[in-house]
Amino acid sequence: MLEMTKIDDYDRLLNKLMEGALNLTTNTKVSIMLLNHLTGELETIRESIPIPDNKTRNLRSDLGITGLALQKEEPIRADDILQYKWRNIYVEHWDDTRSEIALPLVIDGVTVQIKTQLKKSASKTLGVLNIESPEVGSFSREDEAQLWLLARHAAILLDKCDYDTKINQLRNIERSIAEEKKYEKIMQFIVRSITDTIKFKLVNISLIEGNYIKTKYIAGIPKNLKKDFKKMATHSLDSDDIQADIVRQRKIEVLDSNDPRLDPNIFEKFGHDSIIRVFIPMIEQSTNRVLGTIEAGYPKEYRKYIYEQDIEILKNFVNYATQTLERRKTDIIDRITHEFRSPIVGIQSHASFMQRRFYDLPDDLIEKKFNDIITDCGILFNQIGRLDYFLRGIDRQNIRIERTLIFRDIIIKTVNQLRPTIRSKGFSIYDIEYPDNCNRIAIFTDKAKINQVVYNLLINSIKYAIKDPNQFHIKLEIEDKPKELCIKFMDWGTGIENDDRNRIFEAGFRAQEAIRNDVVGSGLGLAIARNIMSQFGGDLLLTNLRKPTEFQMILPKKTKEEIENDLIY
Hints:
Layout: H1 2-5, H2 10-24, E1 29-36, E2 41-47, E3 58-60, H3 64-72, E4 76-78, E5 99-114, E6 117-133, H4 141-179, H5 183-196, E7 202-209, E8 212-219, H6 226-232, E9 234-236, H7 242-249, E10 253-255, H8 264-269, E11 275-284, E12 289-299, H9 308-357, H10 363-392, E13 402-405, H11 406-424, E14 432-433, E15 442-445, H12 447-463, E16 474-480, E17 484-491, H13 512-516, H14 525-535, E18 539-544, E19 549-556, H15 560-568
Helix pairs in contact: 2-4, 4-5, 4-9, 5-9, 9-10, 10-11, 11-12, 12-14
């Protein structure tokens, strides 16, 4: 036991436990089996002599003498496994076994959390130290007492080692998260770390959008059911749902299956009556604002409590991940606000110039100055829309679904918005080619949101156009299909590199060519545009890289009620 206390490596500790068990007994075989609390199996991870291939290596935690010791949380000694009392209990590992002793690796007085309160009264079972002998009555009461002392001491040290191992693994993961620039990959890192390292089976990251809290990332739900889960797991922040309550209370809470704040429909459909779960608010440190919640849980059949230690690990990791997302968001906001300065300085300069010399200026110069101001206002308007979307997402309370003529209400309106920008580049709006017979095509949608998507696509075609006005050309086509509308945007500008085809829709991504050529941008336009299309049940696709560069906007043809129902979720 003294030698074990000096060991801080999990594998070496297991080896020393096996060595101790062999030294305390004679002519025995030893196996160490650890409980997988997600599957309920006792998994053999150490054995003094290999178990034959035709024998069971892993065992259900309710079977065998080992399972009995685990269930009772006390040593079980079988002097002769051929006795009648063991006939329906004993599970064979080694062929020549006649006596067996199983000692649970258990810790008493462990602190657990129930709702919001900590209680130091639970036990924690890690596994079983199992020893078998070919001799009848091989283990005495004294052997049992000594081995039991060894097993309990080992359990405490193994638990500490496991804690330290998880902490070290998460530190490495945190470094990877800090280096990662892609939002989606950061979120995948977080989910995978909670399942693989902290060993929770269910993970649900819910984020606040407008007045709703909505499941965005999920693990532990069958792939074919994830879409249904996300659709159902959207709740108003004013509701009595547990996610909304965690946001309001800002407290960590552990729930069992009978809490009235749990959504009964989700609870029943996804079998959550068998899951014990912890809910942790994601709080942004700089603003003290709740961004969302992380829900994590596992089957309570094999571990009926969530221990304070695991909650502490999870909470620290969640806090770190939230800070990383906060830093990343701050970087993007800084980039957006930096873009505000140029048009503001432009407006200020033009207004000051005209204020001083208005009555001396010729009409054509006054018109040019006003056009420049209008251009800068359009840039500001677009940037404000990006900032608003980045901070709040789609505000469902301000969505207005109405019958919309695609050509007149969106495309022509957007081109008119961009007319001063097109002129300032030396291009002509007459080099924008429209499709024939598109005036009457109409769908139900939100004009302002779809206008934002079209604006982003057209402004990119203008920003990345070749400087020669004779080569400026934008072509639009519309395919009116039975269930969807496809709007194609084509331009003959600088194009997109093949290596960037999968990255251009990432928030914050900017191509090296754009940076080298000093093209102003935040890297958010296409990410926001695709997200808007996704929210409305459509999509935004890159279908050709250059000559022409082609994007396709896919808008579903749905009734007003269908779209509004989809947007709720």
